Structure formats: structure tokens, C-alpha cells
Amino acid sequence: MQNDLFGTLTETPSREEIAEGAVLLRGFALTEEDALLVDIALVAEAAPFRNMVTPGGFTMSVAMTNCGRAGWVSDRRGYRYATDDPLSGKPWPAMPDSFLILAQSAAAAAGYPAFAPDACLVNRYVPGTRLTLHQDKNEKDFAQPIVSVSLGLPATFQFGGMERTEKVTRYRLEHGDVVVWGGPTRLRFHGVLPLKDGLHSSLGATRINLTFRKAM
Ligand code: MD6
Ligand code: FE
Questions:
Q1: Does some domain include residue 115?
Q2: Among the bound ligands, the one closest to the CA of 79
Q3: What residue numbers bound the domain in which 86 lies?
Q4: Where would you tag: which of 4, 14, 117, 164 has the fewest CB atoms within 10 A of its CB?
């Protein structure tokens, strides 16, 4: 904790290596919070949040949208990246500068200086929403890391191994925390436990996660 001139208590950003190639930057996004929230609202206006269907026919509890050249989509045909939003048939909204600058500076702080994301998946959780264990493997280039930004209500993030059955470590991710994740951990299983009830001062009963990838 830091106490600035105005007596405001702020968390000092910290850097914690949670595995080889994976770094947790607590509070890293806090200074950009206002710009990020404005830009999330603009993205969601152009490409509304929707609950996608898995190839197995289940409706996901996480509501999603995308910005950038490529957007992650799921339907009965499978998981993939697409340049157009299937709801509108138009390209996804451009990646806002605030998003790109944050993603690149977080990647650099974690030891990935050349991160060039072309996709940002925006996930929206409400209490009860969860994301089951999965690997992020629809991207072309696993040499590039993923940058994941947490906003709003806290969540319990599960970080597992290369097999679904391996034991998981749990991390509490709070408003402003950023996880950068690449190298030997790029394909580790991970998920989010059901979101607990609560009210966040800027986002109410919501958690928003931004995940940046080089997809195409
Ligand atoms: C979430 N995140 O935190 C979901 N994937 O809401 C992810 O699925 C994720 O945080 C790959 C790397 C980092 C992540
Ligand atoms: Fe993921």
C-alpha cells in the first residue's frame, strides 16, 4: 500500500512469477481504469455481449464479445477465430488504443517485449457465472503470450497443468490485476470458479475479463 499526497491508499503494482513464463501483475491496469471502462462500453455498443453455444450444444454462462482484427467465436461447428461478428456480419470493432497500450506494456513488464495482439476477447461474468477448465489453443502462434486483465468483482482463477486431471492452483484475481502467460505455460489448463455475489464500485455485480492474443 502507498499513501499519496492526497491521502489516497493505492496498491503498489507487484510482479509475481506464478510459473516459468507466467507472471501476475497485481494492480497493473488500475491507472488505466477509466479509459478501459469507457472503451469496453463502446466495444459492447458496436458488438453486444452474447452467450455463445459450445460445439456440444451448451450455452456458455460467460457472455462474450470481441474487438480487434480477429474475434473468438463458438457455435455448433466448433471454436475458431473469425474476422466478422456473426451477429452483424460486420468486422469486429477495432481494438481501442487504451487496450493495445495496456496489453503491450503488461507483456513487456512480464518479459515479452514484442507482443502484437490482433484479438481481444471480452468476457462478462455475473454472480454464478463460471468458466470450466480449458486450454487456449485456437491461436496460430503459441510463441506469443496471452495477456489477461481482470476488472470488477474478484474471481478465483484456477491454473492447472498440461492435462485436465492435474492439480490446480487457485489465485484470487481482483480489479486491475493482469496475468501474462506464455512460454512453457502457454497451453496449461485453466478456468474460473463460479463468481461470488458482490458489488464493485465501478462495475456493480459484474466481472469483466479482457484476454489479448495473437490469433491469426
Ligand atoms: C477469465 N480467462 O479470467 C478467463 N485464458 O475470465 C481465461 O480463460 C484466460 O485469463 C488464457 C490466459 C489467461 C486467461
Ligand atoms: Fe482461457
A1: yes
A2: 2
A3: 14-213
A4: 4
